[in-house]
């Protein structure tokens, strides 16, 4: 399991779900892993899946949290937790609470994004609603 994969996934979890409890953080990790397992236009490895523009907003160049994401280190307890979750997801030693989801959005948004309209969610975990591409 390459350390870079663990780090990139952990940073993505930290950027997307650091305010979520462990199951919410794990759910974001599983979306990444499910995208890697079923490659499409978003990429076929963890680095590409996470950093392809407009997939995970925390990596977008104009996102105000991106500098924090790039600077976070093991002094941050949530990042350390994200590293552990990433290790388990990549190793396959943690169950997928999203039942194969490949996308999600924050349910606190004022309205559903266009890509989600008319689609059936597969899970709601924390503040995120999850969807599986069929």
What is the number of beta strands? 3
Q: Give the helix level as a range of percent.
A: 40-55%
Radius of gyration: 14 Å
Residue-averaged pLDDT:
93
Q: N-to-C SSE series?
A: HHHHHEEE
Strand content: 5-15%
Structural class by secondary-structure content = mainly alpha
Structural shape: globular
Widest sheet, order of strands: 1-3-2
Distance between the termini: 28 Å
Structure description:
With 134 residues, the protein is mainly alpha-helical. The protein contains five helices and three strands; from the N terminus they run H-H-H-H-H-E-E-E. It has a three-stranded antiparallel beta sheet with strand order 1-3-2, covered by helices on one side. A hairpin with a 2-residue loop joins strand 2 and strand 3. Helix 1 crosses helix 2 and helix 1 crosses helix 5. The longest helix is centred in the N-terminal third of the chain and has 16 residues. 35% of the residues are buried. The model has no long low-confidence stretch (mean pLDDT 93).
Indicate the topology.
Blueprint: H1 3-17, H2 22-37, H3 46-51, H4 66-71, H5 77-91, E1 103-106, E2 123-125, E3 128-131
Antiparallel strand pairs: 1-3, 2-3
Keywords for this entry:
mainly alpha; 134 residues
């Amino acid at each position: 399991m390459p350390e870079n994969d663990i780090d990139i996934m952990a940073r993505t979890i930290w950027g997307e779900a650091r305010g979520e409890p462990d199951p919410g953080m794990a759910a974001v990790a599983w979306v990444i892993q499910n995208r890697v397992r079923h490659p499409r236009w978003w990429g076929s490895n963890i680095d590409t899946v996470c950093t392809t523009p407009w997939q995970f907003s925390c990596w977008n160049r104009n996102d105000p949290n991106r500098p924090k994401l790039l600077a976070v280190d093991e002094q941050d307890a949530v990042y350390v937790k994200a590293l552990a979750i990433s290790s388990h997801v990549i190793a396959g030693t943690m169950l997928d609470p999203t039942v194969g989801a490949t996308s999600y959005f924050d349910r606190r948004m004022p309205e559903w994004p266009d890509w989600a309209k008319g689609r059936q969610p597969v899970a709601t975990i924390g503040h995120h609603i999850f969807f599986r591409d069929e």
